[in-house]
Amino acid sequence: MQGDDAMTKQATSPIGTPGVPWGPAEVAAWRAGQTRKRSFEAEVLGAIQALGERWDLVQYGRLDYPPDTYPLLAIKSRNWRDELPCALVTGGVHGYETSGVHGALRFVGEHAASYEGRVNLMVVPCVSPWAYERIHRWNAQAIDPNRSFRQDSPVQESAALMRLVEPLRDRVLVHIDLHETTDSDESEFRPALAARDGVAFVPGNIPDGFYLVGDTQDPQPAFQRAVIAAVAKVTHIAPADAEGQIIGSPVVAPGVINYPLRQLGLCASITNATYKTTTEVYPDSPRATAEQCNEAQSAAVRAAIDFALAAKA
Predict the structure, then answer these.
(1) Potential cystine with 85: which of 7, 173, 200, 253 (Cβ 3.0-4.6 Å)?
(2) pLDDT per residue over 4-20, tens digit each?
(3) Nearest CA-CA partner of 13 in 196, 221, 186
(4) Of 238, 111, 243, 248, whose CA–CA distance to 180 is shortest?
């Protein structure tokens, strides 16, 4: 029965032929249907530029999707000291995941100054500004940047971030990548992925609450627990489903699952940081507000850095 429903959902895709992967014509048709729904310049770029009085702003690339271009900006500690460990914060790898962007900006605006002299900070609030404006998971080529952090990546967003981070790859102590899991994952993005790849859409479940994705190869369970404990003071933690899983992966601790980050080409794999995690906030929960989601992301960043610095001491 589930297979029948899956094929029905696939067949309703307005682009392409069910069961046939998209080619360039289908990608072009999809891109033509994407419209700007909000302003990166007004909502994000302006906020980043306002931080320039206290922080160094580094333009590490320019996203070019004619007729649109976007500066790619990182926020960096002004008093950078080579002897200090580095903390990397990334947000907006998926442009539609709003609290990842604004949670990163909140952390810098309200809390980052307290780490001066203890850690070098590099914060990239919005990796995918084209997708931010269109409230989408993919870039303009219908590719997921968060499966594209690989050597010689064809994805502008991913390749530019990897070039920025490469000189720090072995010096980053902690990297926290800020994401959301939304109802639109199930209603829009997963069906679109199935249509793009010419496969059946298999329905899943959206967990109600915050969770983390650690690294299967080096899970650092105490670190993940510390971040969960901090976020639990702000918003609720996602429970395991009836199979003891979250989004199809076994729950290894309350609110924690693990992925093979590097094998999947995920953003959290781009350094050799000892401590790394991906946050997943659930903004569509009736038990959470946008304010809580932004605060949860900021709290997660602070807890991650605090744990890493304490462990190193």
Answers:
(1) 173
(2) 343 344 435 789 999 99
(3) 196
(4) 238
Distances (CA, A) of 198 to 143, 195, 248: 15, 5, 21
**pTM greater than 0.90 (yes/no):** yes
Asked if 236 contacts 283 with a C-beta cutoff of 8 angstroms, the reply is no
Rounded Cα distance, 55 and 77, in Å:
6
Helix (H, G, I), strand (E, B) or coil at 158: helix
Domain boundaries, the chain: 2-312
Cα separation, 226 vs 242, whole angstroms: 25
What number of CA atoms fall less than 13 Å from residue 294's CA on the CB side? Answer: 15
3-state secondary structure of 147: helix
SS (H, E, C) 23-43: CHHHHHHHHHCCCCCCCHHHH
Rounded to 5 degrees, φ, ψ at 290 are -60, -35
CATH class of this structure's domain 2-312: alpha beta
